[in-house]
Every structure is written in C-alpha cells, then in structure tokens.
Amino acid sequence: LQFLKEHNLDDSMKSLQRESGVTLNTVDNIEHFAADIRNGKWDSVLKQTSALKLPGDKLASLYEQVVLELLEAGERDLAKSILRSSDPLTALKSSHLERYMKLEHFCQRPTFNPSEAYELGSSKELRRQEIAESLICEVTVVPPSRLLALLGQALKYQQSQDLLPAGVPFDLFRNARKAAKKDAEEKVPKKAAGDIRSCNQAKVDALVFSPDGQSLVTGGSEGFIEAWDVDTGKLRADLDYQNKGEFMNLEDTVLCTAFSRDGDQIATGSKGGQIKVFKLTTGACVKHFSQAHPQGITSLAFSRDGTQLLTASYDQTARIHGMKSGKALKEFRGHTSFVNCAIYTRDSSNTIITGSSDGTVKLWDLRSTECLLTYRPGVVPGVPVTRELSVHTIELMPNSQDQIFVCTNSPQCFILTLQGQLVRRFASGKKEGSGGDFNCATVSPQGKWLYCVG
C-alpha cells in the first residue's frame, strides 16, 4: 500500500485497501499534517484523508468545517456540492439530521455569519485546532520505501546465509537469479569454471542444466539426485532438504534426467526402468512410475505443456506416459536395438524423433504411433556399411524450425532436416574406431556451437 501511495497509484491503493480490509493510516509528516489543518489548507488535508480509514464522526467534523469555511469565502456552490455529495456528510445526514440541516440552512442564506456558525466560546481557529488534535491520534508515520527496504534486507540475509552469491543479478519476480540474456554473444569455453564432486561419492551417469542455466542436476550409480549451484560448484544452499543431508533418490542407478519447461520439476529414469518426478524446491516425489519400461530408461523429455513424459529405453521402444494417470499412453516400436534418445519436435502435438544403437533415426506420428521416416546418419548410399553407428544424441537446432543435430559413436556429427536430408557434416579428423569416436554431444543455447566429447 505504501509503495502504491508513494507512486501516486491512488486507484490501485484504494482497490487493494477495499479488497484486503487493510488500511495504510500514515502521513508523510504528522507536524505538517496538523499544520495544514490549523492553517486551513483543505486541498492538501482532504487529499491525505481520502486514503485514510478514519472514524465517521471525525471525518464528519472535518468536512463540516470545510463547508463552513467555503461559505465564509463566498464559495457557496462548491460548499453545496461537498455537502450533498461527500460520503462523510451523507452519513451525517442519516445519523445527525439536525447538524446536517443547519449546514443546509447556512448554504441557503445570502451571507455567512461566523457567530451563528460557531458555538459560544468557539471560533474558526479553535475548531481547526480541535480537528487537528482529533485526527493526528489516528495516523502515524513510517519510513519511506519500506517495501524496497524489506526486499533489500531479505536479499542481504540470503547472501549472509550463502543462499545468494554476492554480485549476482536477482530476479525478484521469479525469486531466482537472472538468467543470461538470450541475445548475449556465445563464446567458446576456454577453461574449466569449477569442479563438482558428488557428496555421495557415486559415479555420475546423468546430468542436466535447469532451463535458466543457474542449476545443474546430477544422478549417479547410488541413485541419488543432487542439485548444484552453477556459480559456486556447491550444492544449492537454498534447498532445505539438501542442507539436512536428504536427497531426491531412486532405488537404482540414475541413467537420465530432464527438467520441465518451467524448471519446477525434474524427471529421473533408472537402470531398472522406473521413473520418479520430483518437485525441485521441496525434493518431494510428485509422480512415480514403478515400471515405465521393463529395462533401463535412457532418455526423458517433458511435453511442452508438462502433462506427458516421453521416454526411451534399452527395451528397443519409446513410450509416452501421462503425468496425471501415471500410465503408459503410447508405445513406439520399430528399432532393433537400444533406443538411446527421444525428443519432441517443435510441433510437439504431431511428431517425435528417436535415435537408436541400430544406427537409425526415426520420425514418428504421435497420434497413430506409425513410423513416418527412417534414415541412417553418416551412411552414404552405395557404400558398404562396415559397422553400425549408434545414434546417442538428437537435439533440435535452436535457430531452425526443421533441423536437428545428430551425433553417433563415430568421429562425425551432423545437422539434418527432419526429413533426413544432410545440411552439414562435422568431423574430428580421426579415423573411426581409433579412439576418436564421440560419446556424447550437445548444442549451445543459440545454436552457434556444437560440443562433442570423445
């Protein structure tokens, strides 16, 4: 309320007061407020009292005095308008009709006589003083900009508790650190930003960055899922359950992880075929698929609206699971080996793409589960295939509507159209099988760089 008042958002302040039942009975300076009343600066006084919640009898006395002084100044029309339209005097008419009719009588007379308006022993100056004394006990003064001051104190407390690294921009609306600007120039990493070591001494088998790039979630051989602060390389200190030594966990090795689009939920898949979805801020498991696949889950992806999960598995299938029903809704069969990755296309209501150790990429109709297209990245027509190139990575290209990035266990990776047409080929220069094969890969956020690890 104070913030709205200080920024002259009077209508918003009144609406909030009316809806919340809370009133900000404050003035900037009590001495100045009282002096305005004693000096008859009614424009200023009425503006200040319009935002206050004052007793009806005190408001009536204030408006009664304003009407009398307007009549004394010859402002008869204005006095009549205030008398007949202001809420305090309308209420006075109902509760004290005699006082109200006395004011009406004064408004009808051609001249104003102060001796008739004020009781014996009273005067305009004494009435002003009485009104000032009655009103100043209803109001108080608070320091300016309290909202911003409280927010500043809260941020300082978070910094003192290592919940917010000093010097890091913070988004108060999202209650999170500000993500890097999307239009910021992408630069090639030239040195390690830091080391992250699992508190549980487990081998890390899965990791994923949060959508805002501020957190990294890892899962490993012991089944624990840990959330890390990217800037400090330490466990996120703002997650109470991690501070207590408690972690999100599966009953088996964690093979894959995925964030929902809003970053609120994290899905995890295990070697035993189960899925657990956790709420990151509390660590609570919000959905458990005890047997999403009969074998290990290799890939997870939330649908755009977060109501479904797309999974891939060692069982040579991909499936879609309902977050509400907790059941498998659709299954995609056709690969002859492990399905290593599965993603939604940008038109996520119509098609998905899968990549397999059988060397193929398949485009599927989401509704009918029919395979629409199959192609083999890196295979040249007419050239004999000496070995299957397992497809382990498929990602959408950020700067294109119909292109994907595909990487195989070879020294090559590719940018393809959804129809399998080669757009560009990249090669490390090493021979296949000589130790230069890529094991994992990803695309930079703006699609300017491809990162491949071998």
Architecture overview:
The protein is α+β, with helices and mostly antiparallel strands and 454 residues long. It contains twelve helices and 24 strands. Strands 3-4-5-6 form a four-stranded antiparallel beta sheet, with no helix packed on it.
Topology:
Blueprint: H1 2-6, H2 10-20, H3 30-38, H4 42-49, H5 56-72, H6 76-85, H7 87-95, H8 97-108, H9 114-117, H10 124-136, H11 146-160, E1 170-171, E2 176-177, E3 204-209, E4 215-220, E5 224-229, H12 240-243, E6 248-249, E7 254-259, E8 265-270, E9 275-279, E10 285-289, E11 297-302, E12 308-313, E13 317-322, E14 328-333, E15 339-344, E16 351-356, E17 361-365, E18 371-375, E19 391-396, E20 403-408, E21 412-417, E22 422-427, E23 440-443, E24 450-453
Antiparallel strand pairs: 1-2, 3-4, 4-5, 5-6, 7-8, 8-9, 9-10, 11-12, 12-13, 13-14, 15-16, 16-17, 17-18, 19-20, 20-21, 21-22, 23-24
In the predicted model, the low-confidence regions spanning at least 5 consecutive residues are none
Largest sheet: 4 strands, antiparallel
The fraction of residues in strands falls at 25-35%
Based on the structure, what is the oligomeric state of the protein chains? single chain
Radius of gyration: 36 Å
What's the short story on this structure?
By secondary structure, this protein is of the alpha+beta class.
Which descriptors would you attach to this protein?
454 residues; alpha+beta; four-stranded antiparallel sheet; elongated
